[in-house]
User: Fold this.
Amino acid sequence: MSLTADVNPFSIVTAKLRNLFTKYPEWRTWGLSLLAWAFLLYGLFNMPGEASHAGRSIYCLPGGGASLQAHGANGAAAEGTFAGILKTVFDGLKQWNIMVIAMMFPLLNEPIRHVTFSVRRKDRTRGILGFLLGYVTVWMAVGLLFMLLPLFIDMLVGKQNQLITALIKASGFLLAAALTWQPARLVKMTKCAQTMPIRINAPQLYTDTIMYGLKMGAACFNMCWAPMVALMLAHHNFFLMWEVTLVLLCERYILPHTSRLPGYAWGIIAFALYSIEMWG
Assistant:
């Protein structure tokens, strides 16, 4: 009997996949991103009440009033109670984190590779998890603030007519477009690829990877906060999320850091949102 006859084909495939994930560790975060998009897509077609929005738990009503609601299994809203508010915050953060995983994780190629090749092979998964824990923690804290943004806008403008609503939805992307011409933009983009020394022995391994995740989360927020605010003001429509993600990916991996094309893209999106709200 030949030696090759005893080889398990499944083992060969597993070994090749393991080698690929070792060579391209960023595939792990891309895989998590795809799972998040699949979850959002499932909600798009299977949750009629949330058909075009990614878990809008705190939002401005069409007539201009603001609502803070927690929805139970039967769709009933529990308003005003402490338990209802806690459930709303929890549900909102869950959806916010899914959105962050879907949109932000593909932007982490360089940091993930840095963590992977800075630690011992047996510690790579734990190192990546520590980094992602720190990274998501930053965005979760930001999410708590962003969830209150529609309520704050409602307190400022009160009852909104169609023009005001259209201007609010477009304003976030207009701000993102304006910031493209900010002189400090090049520095911000450079920080999105920063590295730091990571010690290979526990517990320093965990503290360093978490701290690196916190630093990268802060750097990414400093660069991407305007489009994320714009999504909140536009109630993070699923298809709009796709458009924003594509612009961010092009900005990070394809275009030179000095390119102003993302600014024009944000401007086009702002005009489209305004037009749809006014005449759509």
Observations:
- Confidence is low (pLDDT under 50) at residues 49-79.
- The longest helix spans residues 204-233.
- Residues 16-279 form one domain.
